[in-house]
Amino acid sequence: MRSKQHSLRGIGALGLTVLLSHSSLVLSFSLRQLSGTATRIPGVHLKASVVASPPSSPILQDEFDDVANPRGAKNDWEVHKFGGASLATAELYRTVGDLLIRESEGREHGTIPTMAIVSARGGMTDLLVKVVDSALLNFEQANVALQEAVESQVFLLKELAPPEITDPIEARFRSDGQDILSVVQSLRMLHTVPAVTMEVVTGFGEIWSAQTLHAYLQTQNVPCEWIDARDILVVKSDSSGLGEKGAASTGGVTPLYEITTERLSHWWNNEGRNAGFLDLSYEKGQVPIVIVTGFVAQTIEGVPTTLKRSGSDYSATIFAKLVSAGRVTMWKNTDGVYTADPRRVPEAFPIASLKYDEAMELAYFGAQVLHPSAMEPCIDKKIPVYVRNIFNPDFEGTLIQGRCATLKDSFDSKIMNWRSKSGFVPIKGITSVDKIALVSLEGASIGGANVAERFMGAMADNDIKVLIITQASSESSITVAVPENEGQRALQVLENVFELELSRSKINSLSVATGMSIVAIVGEGMAMTSGVSATFMTSLSSANVNIRLIAQGSSERQIAVVVAAEDTTSALRAAHMAFTLSETTATITLLGCTGNIGSALVRQLQEQKTRLAQEFGVSMCINIAANSKKMVVGENSQCLDVDNLSSLIKSDDALAFDLDKITNLMMADVHPLRIVIDCTNSEAVSEYYERWLSSGINIISPSRKVAAGNLERYKCVRAAEKANSVSWLYESSVGSALPICTTLQDLYETGDKVKSITGCVSGTMAYVLSSFSEDVPFSEALRAAVEKRITENDVWEDLSGMDMAQKVVILARSLGMNVNLEDVEVESLIPEEFLKKEYPDDWNEMTAAQLEDIKCMDAVMLGRLKAATAEGQRLRYKFLIDKETGKCKCSLVNTEATDPLYRLKLYENLVAFETSRYETSPLIVKGAAAGPDLASAGIFADLLRLTRSFSSNQG
């Protein structure tokens, strides 16, 4: 009968008991709801009724006598809270029930009295909200939704227990449904939904859920009972309604502990239904399990209310304080509180421990694992809070206990850069709040204090929640972050408040910007520790994330920024990597993946995968791969199985090669470090460089189409690189794995003046000119080079000198010389008619024809070799870049023994830098540089250079 009485009392407080007659509709309202209502409903007679209130007590009472444990209890109570996701199916109710029994069996100190706070089953609250919302427009639709709610709960109930247990409970459910139907039917006459109506109706989800779990526990022969929290928990509430879903506030709900304690004591002593529930034989292993409805409560006037959306966490810690629990466990579907939202940051991991203050900060800034108010009752009683996974109960989860040091205490510590402390990470987690608007008042020329007072007063007077505030004292400008759905209302309020100043141009403008998110880092360790803000801000810059607002709490436990909504995930991942909470991940688009160089690079990445992760904290993820015809894409930006890349490209699932689609996929990728590796020789691909760089995508390019191509395009690409703080690296385009470009860059940046650069940067020329002789014809030496995969795909590029000429252009441009390919004087080793000849498209046929044609040069080249040998010289193909004269040249020359090229060996490249510092003896870079393995090693080096640069920039 108790549940039925509750239903009638709830409706009485709501004031909507329905008596139908032909001539009138009689509604019973509580006195406090009558004002202003009677005159608005024609033909309706309103009768006031008085709802009995409990004895008066102080409104705020934090000190109270502990509720006595049931007689015989030897251990402290433990409180467990289960959300709707943990109670979505009958099987989950069984899981919860079995877990409660297992937890109550205790640890080393015997059995443990156990209390469980339960939410409505998954989806029930939204369904009951739909019942109320639909009633105004379509009563039949509301009725259908209500029947769905009742029947679905009854269905679960019957799966969990036999009829002798479920029949009376089912009857109560159906009776509750009729009461709800009467309430929503009355709403059509009011043409509005009183806030208390929504709170009463939605609260039935928890009431039904508690009875359902209680029914299952009865089948397990454990002493158990359930409590309707509306009979026990009394609160003072400054607001009405359910509040925003996922909101970080209970809307000013304050528990009245003294009267609540009295009511709970009364329940212990008078209302324990099951025989022996209060006199248990602990020696026999029996322990009580009490199920309590979360979310719902009652005001001092007896009006049903709630702790607002997501308030069941708060219910759990309130009851934990009431029974002086030894611990509270929040059962979720994750392994605790994570360093970031794992849906957005897959590398996130559970945090082992948090302080109460850190947990509240994380919750306030959007971490949905805990409600921020839930910490408050535990702080006073020093009750530890555990966050554990119902699907992985053996995992310890996150422990929350203890207070952070005060700022005053922190001042006594020595300031150190956080990176100087070995193994120290100053933050515990990174979180975000979506759907934010920025409301700004700019350029006020009136008194700053008055502006701030009126601005914030307007927000408070209109119940607009301000999440962050910043003020520029120089301009008397103020910007606040508010929930997006309140942005326009905030703007209208301010326009009214500052109407006079706006008309007189004493305020430049009032504006609102939507589509924003807050990203915050939280941790006690950032107090009095330098370098934290720099690391955070630099990480966002490296990820090309623009910051719209910055704020740091006075406690120095959090730093928050506002960014565009579409940049939120990139910002979270970048910050997570920056504080070494996860390894640096580079997402790679590999173009030319099935070519010689691309295939070699894939092999190297696979071979070095473990070492990269262990030694450098770097993960290389190829999520898009393509050749000239096909491409494959990792689902949801996941890494491709590179061991089977060739098979994937050839499969029916492969897509047609599409540069626009690749570009769109890369731009949608939320990883902060995105890289294109262009192993093609494609003019079409080179046209996308500027667009990629402008979108914050880095490029590594063994291709020379841009670096040695059209000068105007080259300059535009360089400008895009600089403007967007990204990198275009092409070390391998000149000397494979040799550090030629980086050496030149170091000379230039350190202020050395480069006078000239000479050498040979063609592996093909070095091999052929060093290996052909009277016994080995020039054409046969070239054939050997082709077989060893030293040459370009088109060997004419090597022998014509165009390959080396392109590299000369790259080096000359790095010196600041405005050089095009046609500005380089080039000596070709191929007769002119062969350069104009059409060869087959098939590589094997083309190469065979070229090797046959080049035989005509055997005698000519042998004559050049003999002439050089007769003079004690050696034949070499040499380039020259003269900075002072602007001359660039590639030619076949006889080298003296004093020339560094004289000792050039097979497979080698050599570059000599003559500079102001290296005037008497040039700086020489020399080593093997022929073949795809060395070329891919150069790309690999650029990759590591880029990832290290990304990580160090964030520190």
From TrEMBL:
Family note: In the N-terminal section; belongs to the aspartokinase family. In the C-terminal section; belongs to the homoserine dehydrogenase family.
Name of the protein described by the UniProt record: Bifunctional aspartokinase/homoserine dehydrogenase II
Residues of the Aspartate/homoserine dehydrogenase NAD-binding domain: 595-731
GO terms for biological process, alphabetical: homoserine biosynthetic process; methionine biosynthetic process; threonine biosynthetic process
Catalytic activity: L-homoserine + NADP(+) = L-aspartate 4-semialdehyde + NADPH + H(+); L-aspartate + ATP = 4-phospho-L-aspartate + ADP
MF terms (GO), sorted A to Z: aspartate kinase activity; ATP binding; homoserine dehydrogenase activity; metal ion binding; NADP binding
Superkingdom per UniProt: Eukaryota
Keyword terms, alphabetized: Amino-acid biosynthesis, ATP-binding, Kinase, Metal-binding, Methionine biosynthesis, Multifunctional enzyme, NAD, NADP, Nucleotide-binding, Oxidoreductase, Sodium, Threonine biosynthesis, Transferase
Domain Homoserine dehydrogenase catalytic span(s) in chain numbering: 739-944
InterPro entries: ACT_Aspartokinase, Asp/Glu/Uridylate_kinase, Asp/hSer_DH_NAD-bd, Asp_kinase, Bifunc_Aspkin/hSer_DH, HDH_cat
Protein's job: Bifunctional aspartate kinase and homoserine dehydrogenase that catalyzes the first and the third steps toward the synthesis of lysine, methionine and threonine from aspartate.
PANTHER family for the chain: HOMOSERINE DEHYDROGENASE, PTHR43070
Any Pfam family matching the protein: Homoserine_dh
Required cofactor names: a metal cation
Domain Aspartokinase ACT, residue spans: 439-498, 519-579
Pathway(s) annotated for this protein in UniProt: Amino-acid biosynthesis; L-threonine biosynthesis; L-threonine from L-aspartate: step 3/5; Amino-acid biosynthesis; L-methionine biosynthesis via de novo pathway; L-homoserine from L-aspartate: step 3/3
Record lineage: Eukaryota, Sar, Stramenopiles, Ochrophyta, Bacillariophyta
Limits of the Aspartate/glutamate/uridylate kinase domain: 79-389
